Amino acid sequence: MNRKEMSRIAHAEHPIKSPLDDDSVGRLLERGLPRGNERVLDLGCGGGEWLLRALATRPHLHAEGVDISEDALAQAAAAAIDLGVQDRLVLHHRKAEDFVSAEPFDAVLSFGAAHAFGGLLPTLAAARRHLAPNGHVLLGEGFWDRPPSREAIDMLGNFTDLATTVERVVADGWTPVDAHVSTRRELDDYEWACWGSLAAWALDHPADPDSSRVLETAATRRWEWLRAYRDTWGFVSLVLRRTSDRA
Question: What whole-number distance in Å separates Cα of residue 146 and Cα of residue 85?
Answer without folding.
Answer: 42
